[in-house]
């Protein structure tokens, strides 16, 4: 545990030491079109059922395998609405707990409610993988939107009518500096103002590997911690939950990858 606390402390110190603001190359104003028109104009992509199966996307239709995510959706939406929150960060203590899989499935489950506009942004700028799970590789990366190089409406892609993704095809050069920059927050605010999503979900890196969470969590309304039954220890969850509570409103902890002997799927998710 000392190692984990030391890592978090190091991350905090490193955040303090990095104050260099990346210079935006171009700042493009958000267009005057209304949100419905902007959503409609986004490039649309589809997920084949084969790709969905191989990346554990189980929420394309309402079925037995989508029910854990549908339950999570209901709880998330209730808490978000009750508190008037719109932005949710998804992170985990250690790597490969299933954050990106949870982000994709939670977002698709939310978007099956036709009156809910959902925007998901891949902010794991060191090892972006949401594009891989969705089996869609964009030509340009969302981090280029954050850097002011391209416009959000040219980069975001739409899945169905009311779900949009900001994906990356490669890591960003200076992820910490970018996430800590005022320019990044300005762009994200512009995107929310223009597209008016009901909820924005950010896929973040694990808390124990970088200071990105320390920098970014204070800018969101709530955070969800994904732990993996096969690799996350109770004390890691404990430390990261406390850390999250210092930085944003903790929405809950997901226990992912837990094996149920009575389930024919073999794996499941639980929330508290
Ligand atoms: N409930 C589950 N049961 C079994 N395997 C799962 C489950 N959820 C995700 N996985 C698998 O675990 C691996 C890691 O998933 P994912 O990429 O979503 O995790 P991550 O936390 O985003 O990883 P990283 O820390 O690298 O960003 C993938 O192979 C994924 O298919
Ligand atoms: Mg991930």
Q: Any overview of this molecule?
A:
With 272 residues, the chain is an alpha/beta fold. The protein has a single domain (2-271), classed as 3-Layer(aba) Sandwich (Rossmann fold), CATH 3.40.50. The chain contains 12 helices and 9 strands. It has helices at residues 2-17, 35-41, 49-54, 67-83, 99-111, 130-133, 142-146, 152-155, 175-180, 182-195, 212-216, 234-247, and strands at 43-44, 87-91, 118-122, 157-159, 163-166, 199-203, 222-228, 249-258, 268-271. A 9-stranded mixed β-sheet has the order 1-4-5-3-6-2-7-8-9, with helices on both faces. Strand 4 and strand 5 (163-166) form a beta hairpin. Helix 4 (67-83) crosses helix 5 (99-111). The longest helix has 17 residues, at 67-83. The relative contact order is 0.20. Residues 261-267 have low confidence and may be disordered.
Largest sheet entry: 9 strands, mixed
- CATH homology superfamily name: P-loop containing nucleotide triphosphate hydrolases
Bound ions, cofactors and other small molecules, one mention each: adenosine-5'-triphosphate, magnesium ion
Unreliable sequence segments: 261-267
Provide the gyration radius in Å.
Answer: 18 Å
Structural class: alpha/beta
CATH class: Alpha Beta
Assign the CATH architecture: 3-Layer(aba) Sandwich
């Amino acid at each position: 545990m000392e190692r984990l606390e030391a890592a978090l402390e190091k991350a905090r110190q490193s955040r303090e030491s990095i104050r260099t603001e990346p210079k935006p190359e171009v700042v493009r104003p958000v267009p005057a079109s209304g949100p419905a028109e902007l959503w409609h104009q986004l490039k649309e992509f589809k997920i084949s059922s084969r790709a969905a199966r191989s990346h554990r996307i189980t929420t394309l239709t309402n079925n037995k395998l989508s029910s854990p995510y549908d339950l999570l959706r209901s709880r998330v939406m209730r808490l978000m609405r009750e508190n008037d929150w719109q932005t949710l960060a998804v992170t985990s203590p250690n790597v490969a707990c299933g954050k990106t899989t949870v982000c994709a499935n939670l977002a698709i489950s939310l978007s099956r409610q036709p009156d809910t506009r959902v925007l998901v942004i891949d902010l794991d700028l060191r090892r972006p993988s949401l594009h891989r799970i969705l089996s869609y590789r964009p030509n340009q990366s969302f981090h280029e939107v954050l850097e002011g190089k391209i416009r959000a409406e040219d980069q975001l892609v739409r899945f169905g009518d009311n779900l949009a993704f900001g994906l990356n095809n490669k890591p960003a050069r200076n992820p910490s500096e970018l996430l800590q920059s005022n320019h990044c927050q300005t762009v994200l605010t512009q995107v929310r103002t223009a597209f008016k999503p009901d909820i924005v979900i950010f896929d973040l890196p694990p808390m124990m590997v970088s200071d990105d969470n320390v920098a970014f969590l204070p800018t969101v309304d709530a955070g969800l911690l994904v732990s993996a039954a096969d690799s996350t220890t109770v004390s890691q969850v404990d430390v990261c939950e406390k850390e999250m509570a210092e930085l944003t409103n903790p929405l809950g902890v997901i226990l992912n990858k837990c094996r149920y002997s009575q389930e024919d799927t073999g794996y499941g998710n639980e929330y508290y």
